[in-house]
User: What shape does this take?
Amino acid sequence: MLSFSQILFTALVIVVVWQGSRFLGRKGANQNNRENVRAHWTERMKPRRKVQPEHPAAQDMEKCPHCGVYHAEGLAHRCQD
Assistant: This one.
């Protein structure tokens, strides 16, 4: 049967191997991390130009004198009989 010290030693070995693999994986991933972070924040801090919509959000409507349907002002409308 396993004693308490053997269980504790096994758990310690598992934690050390797990943390070691995380450290080595992070070390390989962090080599380009500084450049990536700098590029990310340089891009985010650029002043953004305000985008003006090409068309206004709301248009005035006019009522067709023949059929009574409302349509955007200035656009052609063909009544359906």
User: Anything to note?
Assistant: The chain has a mean pLDDT of 81. The chain has two helices and two strands.
